[in-house]
Specification:
single chain, 171 residues, mainly beta, 9-stranded antiparallel β-sheet, 9 strands, 65% strand, globular
Length: 171
Amino acid sequence: QDIAMMLKWRPVYLEMEQGSLSFLGALGFATPLSDYEANAVLSIGNQSTRGDLRLMTQYKANNGLFIDMQAGYSLRSNDVPNAALLFTKIGYAGAHFYVDLWSQTQISDSDAPDIGGVPFNETRVNYTQIGISGYVPITGGLGLSVGVGQYVWGRNVGLATRVSGGVIYSF
C-alpha cells in the first residue's frame, strides 16, 4: 500500500588481503499509494510519507563470513514520530548456502503518547527484534529461503514471532 525507493552510494571500497570493506550511504523516500485506514489494529501502514538517511559499513572476508552495520534516521509526516534506525547482520555467504543472524532497532524521538485513547499514528514505537535468515540454492537460479524473527523488546508493539519461507528464482 506504500511505494518506496532507495538510492545507495558506495564511495569507499577497499580490497584487502583477507577480504573487502565498504562504506555506503543511502537516501530513501516512501509514500502511500492510496487512502488506506492507518489507525486500525490490523493496519500495515501509517499513511505517512517518509524520508530516510542511512550510513552503512560492510566487511566480507574471503572465506564468506561477513558483517553489515547500518545507522539511520527517518523523517516522517502526519504526526508519525521520527525515528533512529539501527541494523546489524553477521553471517556466512558461500556457494552452497547463506545464513545470517540479525538485529534491528527503532527508537522514536518523540514524547508521543502510548497506545490508549489516541490514534495509533501518533504513538511512540520503539522496538528491537532479532532473527535468523537462510538460503539454499537448489538448481540453476532456483533456491529456498527461510527465516524467523522475534521482537525481544518494544513499546507500543506486540512482542510477536514471525516465520517466513520462500522460493527464490534468480535470473
